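Sample A.
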Amino acid sequence: MRVALEFLYHFCCDHCQRWWSQADVEPQPGDQLYCPHCGFQNRIERIDTFRNALRGSCLIRPPDGVSVESGKQST
């Protein structure tokens, strides 16, 4: 069996706060990139792990149908 690992990076625009993902890129702090939504030129300040990135990021909305209190899918 062969296994392949894919790195998926999530970016959040400093201007419009919308986010997007890119696979198999290696961004570095200091790199500049344009937001595909609003065109703002962002500069990467740091790269957080997924667990740390969830704290205080633009990805704070729970998935549809998940109760914030229980963390369980509602029916």
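Sample B, a different protein:
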Amino acid sequence: MTGPSSPDGAAPDGAAPDLPPDLARQLEALGAGLVWRVGKDELSDDVVVRLGYASATPRFAFLPRLRSANDAEIQAALSENRLVIEWVD
């Protein structure tokens, strides 16, 4: 998870930047307990990222459906500020 970072602070090849070992372990543990769904909103064509703890998985079923989004659509939404993050409790 660690490696030399570039001058702008980003890690090479999409890897995480250098982090203190304890923080890296905590982030790994947090990531293991999360679930997410990514797709396009039915009404607005925004790309939605739904994120929540694994215990919230049943609640995802009660939210409006998301249409599939390919990598190019996700990248376009990101560059056009049409990416929406939703936390699912």
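Observation for Sample B: The chain has three helices and four strands.
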